[in-house]
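thread from #wetlab-drylab

HS: before we spend reagent money on co-crystallization trials with NAI, can we at least see a predicted complex? here's what I'd submit
DV: go for it
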Amino acid sequence: MADVKSVGVIGGGQMGSGIAQLAAVAGIGVWLVDLDSEALKRATQSITNSVQRFVSKGQISREVATNALKNLKCTSNLEDLQSADVIIEAIVESEDVKKKLFSELDRIAKPSAILASNTSSISITRIASATSRPCQVIGMHFMNPPPIMKLVEIVRGADTSNETFMTVKTMAERFGKIIVCSQDYPGFIVNRILIPMINEAFFTLYTGVATREDIDTGMKLGTNQPMGPLELADFIGLDVCLSIIKVLHVGLGDSKYRPCPLLVQYVDAGRLGRKRGIGVYTYGKQQELVKS
Ligand code: NAI
């Protein structure tokens, strides 16, 4: 099993920035890659703020935080990942885009490198087929926000080796996470169950059963969830939710997974949730909820 000294994270959005933070705090050198330099600036700011919050709550020492920020480097050049031991992809939830990236990573990464995907639902086996090293490709599905949420779902593709699994499991544990293992079927464990619930909440709104507030309050107080499903959809990103329900619909071939037209319409309108300031609800500059 390889000792991970250097990690590459691709995609500096809400997930990639949090994953880069975890590696940096664990004392691992991290390259964070994004095509968009503004995304890298936002990621650096959010990582800096987040580690400072951990220090002020006494959860990490000032020294660990300072070293974490030193461990982090940002780039828009994939070639900087040549010496990474593990590369974790967290870009847009599209099979074609991910496969293109993995094929490029296969060319750039050193032969021993593990290529992991933070995909929420796409087949690891198919992503691995874009590379010449399917035994070193694995799903490493963090929950949002990665620095806070305890779980990492590890997904083994058809050819993922035991060595790859053990290296990634050990790294996740070094990040302070608890792991669960899933076979490579659409949505894995968590999103197989969560996303149909969110889609059904959209149908409940779409068909006029109740208001968005009553749907969320009903599920929060009625089923003891910290967030209602519509609020959670805004937090995840409505584009991400739609991509996942489409993967379930196509991959499992059951009409019960058809995307709700209201969810589709919100995404078409650019109402992607908190990250865009509007989704089911409207948000202010600090992503706080605004009454609309
Ligand atoms: P996001 O939209 O916040 O960030 C994606 C980032 O990737 C953007 O900054 C974009 O500029 C960058 N990007 C896109 N294509 C790129 C490329 N070819 N090379 C480099 N950078 C590129 O998305 P988010 O929410 O962080 O999701 C990323 C992945 O994580 C998706 O696969 C999603 O399904 C998965 N995921 C999302 C969760 C969520 O709650 N949002 C939870 C768990 C997994």
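DV: Residues 6-183 form a domain with the Rossmann fold fold (CATH 3.40.50.720).
HS: ok that's useful, forwarding to the group
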